């Protein structure tokens, strides 16, 4: 294939990142690489790409080097292709349309674990927002800091939810669920019999977040293959802020962590497992998480994954945070029909029961 112009591709990426209001440091990375390569003979750039020594140049990192290599092979760089997927789309309109299409929320917490409000208060707030359903996904036993539910407490919660559903407004339903810890060996932190009874199971990594890359990948892929898991929650575990704006006290005990880097894992393998097993990747709407980062959302879109745009709400007002997740999903070209909580409740439950 005829080589492309790698400098032009780097500059185009920087332009699209700026237009999408992405982080300044990311824009600078592509502009710096373009400036460095523009001052070198084309033959030297090609030779370095062939030898794998582009990153020895000032201003060229792993991502920009990969972009240059793809461009020189005559391929449209993957990074550019993902950005172009949303070119020409009115992102505000796309985000609003996605928010309007949502019928429910598949990841929420109550005061049975580390939330700040009773289940019924969360449910009524969701109904007022126009939701048709709310999945209650309190934590599992190992997360003691968040008052994770033992099997006995979860059974009591199931009875309580059944009674509440009898009294709630017609057309609204609380779905039973759990945010179950993905343990070190990839198993899920709750009794199999109970997991089988639940409507929605979100699986998340909360411990050993700095696990070595291969071990973390194996851990996540094993959990995704478990038939009880439906949604992979906040997959990188990152925190980009200490707590969400305006949150100062009870109701967010599990979300006071300092800023935290992403866990290291093979995202291509993890998302391929999600696509293979028909599991959804969560787009977590919490402002202090923004998880996954947009580059990984774009990878999951290309891999063919399903998605769930959830709030991970620990208080009623946080249920309106879905707009943040919708904005990020729109910027990454997430198709509306691949977001499981745009589906009617019967279709959602058919899907969770199908695997």
Return Rg in Å.
22 Å
Could you say what the CATH topology of the largest domain is called? TIM Barrel
**How many distinct helices?**
14
Gross morphology: elongated
- SSE topology string: HHHHHHEHEHEHEHEHEHEHH
| Relevant CATH superfamily of the largest domain | Metal-dependent hydrolases
Number of strand segments: 7
Q: Quick one: biggest sheet?
A: 7 strands, parallel
**Unreliable stretches, pLDDT < 50, 5 or more residues?**
none
Helix content: 40-55%
The whole-number mean of residue pLDDT values reads 93
Share of residues in strands: 5-15%
How many angstroms separate the termini?
A: 42 Å
SSE-based structural type: alpha/beta
Q: What is the domain total for the residues?
A: 2
CATH class of the largest domain: Alpha Beta
Based on the coordinates given, report the CATH architecture of the largest domain.
Alpha-Beta Barrel
For the biggest β-sheet, the strand order reads 1-2-3-4-5-6-7
